[in-house]
Amino acid sequence: MRIVLANDTDVMAMTAADLVEGLLAQKPAAHLVLPTGASPLPLYRELVRRKVDLSAARLTKLDEWYRLPRRHPATCEAFLWEHLLEPLRYPRDRFLAFDSDADDPSVECRRMGRAFEERGPADLCILGLGMNGHLGLIEPAEALPLHAHVAALSEESRRHPMLSGVAEPPTRGLTLGIADLLQSKEILFLVSGAHKADVFRRWEASPLATTFPSSTLHLHPNVTTIVDREAAYRSTSTPT
């Protein structure tokens, strides 16, 4: 586990973008798993600013709110196309994604699971830290599903800022499973904002527990955690 403390979100974004750019320079067709939300947004803006070439990369959407119309602005799909994929003119036929408006969510997860398995483990999986310790929409539970599945959303997830304009926030989500994430060759874990300070300290000290899914990252041999000062004001990590 490598923990990098960034002085601010700009430095955090540049450090993360260096890692992504370095991977793509070595392997243009790398498989990347992409999250949404405030933590990865500065990274995506930096990749767009640098005009990083994603055309050969294989990109997979980490998760999705279920039963929002596909073109709804609050979907993870809309977020990724607005902030990263459209500005960099990523080919739509290379994007592997859950359908937020699928008729049967279980069938959709089986489809996604097969497609993800065919694509193979991610070269880089980008993740953020949920307020209750969730990863993607893998929620705290007695047991964590291994692969793509329908998740019953916690109240913390239903209060996510992405859903602030949704009158009736979804009660279910579609997400990759914990084995899908931990099989990644490398994980980039992004944590930012003062509101994440308490959960970040808990994550640093957490024993392995399915009730705190992000604790499973301590099992992975190649995780780079980049955290800004606001989230890690009591961290003993060395700033970059």
Uncertain stretches of 5 or more adjacent residues: 235-240
Strand content: 15-25%
Q: In terms of structural class, how would the helical and strand content be classed?
A: alpha/beta
What is the helix fraction of residues, given as a range? 25-40%
Overall geometry: globular
Mean pLDDT: 95
Sequence-ordered SSE layout with sheet pairings:
Elements: E1 2-6, H1 9-26, E2 31-34, H2 41-49, E3 58-61, E4 63-65, H3 76-85, E5 95-96, H4 105-119, E6 124-128, E7 149-152, H5 155-158, E8 172-175, H6 178-182, E9 187-191, H7 197-205, E10 223-228
Parallel strand pairs: 1-10, 2-3, 2-6, 3-5, 6-9, 9-10
Antiparallel strand pairs: 4-8, 7-8
Account of the 3D structure:
The chain is α/β, with parallel strands linked by helices and 240 residues long. It is built from seven helices and ten strands. It has helices at 9-26, 41-49, 76-85, 105-119, 155-158, 178-182, 197-205; strands at 2-6, 31-34, 58-61, 63-65, 95-96, 124-128, 149-152, 172-175, 187-191, 223-228. It has a seven-stranded parallel beta sheet. Strand 9 (187-191), helix 7 and strand 10 form a beta-alpha-beta unit. Helix 1 crosses helix 2.
